[in-house]
Amino acid sequence: MTDTSTMLAPTRPEFERKVTAPVGLGDVAKPLSFAERLGANAAFRRGVILVLLAFAWELYARWLASPLTFPTFLETLQALRDGIASGVIPQRLAVTLQTLVAGYALGLAIAALFTTAAVTTRIGTDLLSTFTAMFNPLPAIALLPLALLWFGLGRPSLIFVIVHSVLWAVALNMHSGFLSVSETLRMAGRTFGLRGMGFVFKILVPAAFPAILAGLKIGWAFAWRTLIAAELVFGVSSGQGGLGWFIFENRNTLDTASVFAGLLTVMAVGLVVEGVIFRFLEARTIRRWGMQSG
């Protein structure tokens, strides 16, 4: 028989080795310089882009030398300042925003009803797919004659076309987001006894919120441009025109600088909504939940 004592592992001496910091690597994490911090700031980068665009606008307008067709950026700022100081632009903007909020909110409410029915019942799915196939390709501006015929010249007509522009885009994105929710989450919700509206708002809505937020952005963009276009055609509501009507009036009087001032106001509202409101909403929801990188 083999002697087991000869098969034992040899005893190794124990020792401690002192670990020293590597030489020549420098700091693993060093503070960013001022230029690097500015480059990492999205607001600063966008501001630089806007300044460059304004500079190019000014140079081109001066080279063109035709204030009637293309005023300079400084002339447009002067017209914008005069319009704000006189109270015309704030008053017209307030009328437009009131109409926008009413139409946008109504469109979202109807889209939520359609989408909820689509994810809970088969007939709801059939209704949503049929209606979106019929009405989504239909431009909202094409409904202006019908809006005038049905609701007359006023705010209800504007709200009607806004609802049409918002409804189908938001409903499609919501429904797509709900369909992308994993079956694991769905089964977890059913395990806890969630049904109907509880299942939608506690399981589907949080999981599909990135797609829902994308739909809200698309719906906002559609609503804003549809409203301005509609106001250019029949924007007077109860004796008060909106921002689109302000642009139309100044076009008729050949005040091109004021036309550009109105367009600049439209773009400024778009920048504020996209860069402040929606970014704040993203930061408080999908970024905080880890569903989107910063």
Describe this structure in words.
This protein is mainly α. It has a domain of 197 residues: Orthogonal Bundle (MetI-like fold), CATH 1.10.3720.10. 71% of the residues lie in helices and 1% in strands. It has a two-stranded antiparallel sheet with strand order 1-2. β1 and β2 form a beta hairpin. α5 crosses α7. The radius of gyration is 29 Å and the shape is flat.
List keywords for this structure.
294 residues, mainly alpha, 1% strand, two-stranded antiparallel ribbon, flat, 71% helix, single chain
Indicate the CATH class of the domain at 88-284: Mainly Alpha
Helix coverage percent of residues? over 70%
How many β-strand runs? 2
The low-pLDDT segments are none
Strand order in the largest sheet: 1-2
Major sheet summary line: 2 strands, antiparallel
User: Shape from CA axes?
Assistant: flat
The radius of gyration is 29 Å
Strand content: under 5%
CATH topology of the domain at 88-284: MetI-like fold
Q: First CA to last CA: what distance?
A: 71 Å
Alpha-beta content class:
mainly alpha
* Level-2 CATH architecture of the domain at 88-284: Orthogonal Bundle
Could you state the CATH homologous superfamily of the domain at 88-284?
Answer: MetI-like
Query: Helical region count?
Result: 12
Give helix and strand order, one letter per element, not per position. HHHHHHHHHHEEHH
Mean pLDDT: 82
Quick overview:
The protein is mainly alpha-helical. It is 71% helix and 1% strand.
Task: Please write out the topology.
Elements lengths: L33 H6 L2 H23 L8 H14 L1 H33 L1 H14 L8 H8 L3 H25 L3 H9 L4 H12 L1 H26 L1 E2 L2 E2 L1 H10 L3 H29 L10
Antiparallel strand pairs: 1-2
